[in-house]
């Protein structure tokens, strides 16, 4: 199947342009998308990468060749595409490679109502049919409508979180030359927010730093700007602005687990007794806090398809991941980094404490953060770790290996896309967390050599 087998991942499409992903492939995927989903109309948006416009246009040609009408939203964040799919009731496709470097591009697909399409829910069939259609051209028949959805998206977010009554806040936003520079100004316009923008110029070459807030070096500029400007908070978005990382007034990172707990408490205030989803490597403080506020915590595997499926199954009001993805029932169970940021701004602006004090109650444990190790024989590494910790805690293999002891836990799991093992460890005591982390890494390191 050539490049298609390589670029179709578990949840999306992603590859190097034009080596692995080019316009003929995008056109074939457009036709296959319509055939597999049976869509009569499709909504399409794209990010700021140089390759995004021609790839999106090729997809549109393919979709129209199968008699589908296309609503072309143009520039947008991934959560804007979810808004479009939800509000218009249409299947949607977003052209983006998220936080990947400039030469990459890809597609995120969903059915009407922002229902995700993954490997088990249509993506494999789209791949197989597209492979048969590469190089086959047909005349576009369906109509093309260009529609600016940014105002509607901004209005919708503002109805979900009311920021009009908060105290004035100075907010540094690092858009990383990504789509946050397009969406944030519209959403914040007219609110009691003094915006300090960093890298709002849309530039798919990412001239300042990679648009990946999970890497600490990419947070240095926003951390410095928060301290230097005396801001109340900093926000850092990834390339397609569906993830958001929070920085407190001291320039310190606020863990996504603390953000998950904070937003969960706010959502439970609106929906008492509701279900909250968290993946298995968020802090153990999350389910504790959810239960203390009358909610029902449900633990899932890592990955947005698992989160979204479990949210739909349980009717959960909110879900959070360690990777700074946040999912909302009132946003079609889809994720939105900006909506999560607005919840944090509301919580901060509704009281007088600094952000570091506000989130302290949600940060109960010491976490290692995610530590990646390149390991060719992942099975052997997991076997050795399992052997070393036999009898020292409870074992759980829902997603990789989770070992839970007295006051500590760790999870070691294989990456879905790279020859990496990912370790997350947490303990009530920082010294114990460090010891557990280092012991596991030492075992893994012996296998990787």
Automatic annotation (TrEMBL):
Ion transport found in the keyword field: no
Keyword Ribosomal protein part of the UniProt annotation: no
InterPro entries, per the entry: A-D-PHexomutase_a/b/a-I, A-D-PHexomutase_a/b/a-I/II/III, A-D-PHexomutase_a/b/a-II, A-D-PHexomutase_a/b/a-III, A-D-PHexomutase_C, A-D-PHexomutase_C_sf, Alpha-D-phosphohexomutase_SF
Gene3D superfamilies given in the database record: Alpha-D-Glucose-1,6-Bisphosphate, subunit A, domain 3 (3.40.120.10), Alpha-D-phosphohexomutase, C-terminal domain (3.30.310.50)
SUPFAM superfamilies noted in UniProt: Phosphoglucomutase, C-terminal domain, Phosphoglucomutase, first 3 domains
CDD domains: PMM_PGM
Any Pfam family: PGM_PMM_III
Domain Alpha-D-phosphohexomutase C-terminal, first and last residues per copy: 370-441
Cofactors named for this entry: Mg(2+)
GO biological process: carbohydrate metabolic process
Molecular function per GO: intramolecular phosphotransferase activity; metal ion binding
Keywords: Isomerase, Magnesium, Metal-binding, Phosphoprotein
Record-annotated Alpha-D-phosphohexomutase alpha/beta/alpha domain positions: 6-130, 153-251, 260-365
UniProt xrefs under NCBIfam families: PRK09542.1
Family membership noted in the UniProt record: Belongs to the phosphohexose mutase family.
Protein name: Phosphomannomutase/phosphoglucomutase
Organism name: Nonomuraea longispora
